[in-house]
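Q&A log
Question type: sequence-to-structure
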Amino acid sequence: MEKQFVLECCSSNAFLDDIQTIDWLSKTYPELAIEPDGCLDRCGICMRYAYVVINDDFLYANSVEELKEQIISYIENHRQG
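Response status: OK
Response body:
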């Protein structure tokens, strides 16, 4: 089954360290695929911010909790059906 949302992030990103958030997002939004990658752009932003790329849109925040809220908002606003 193809996922409606693909969330990519660098494997060193602070977002991936928050296992509870990752688990919660996976259970709450089964249409979301979370795909860690080695390094997306070698930009160094993962050292400063929690960030993800979701369906080619870049989201970043000063904290994982703030980023979680942005991801939820993105999914809710772009859901089909």
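Response note: The chain has three helices and four strands.
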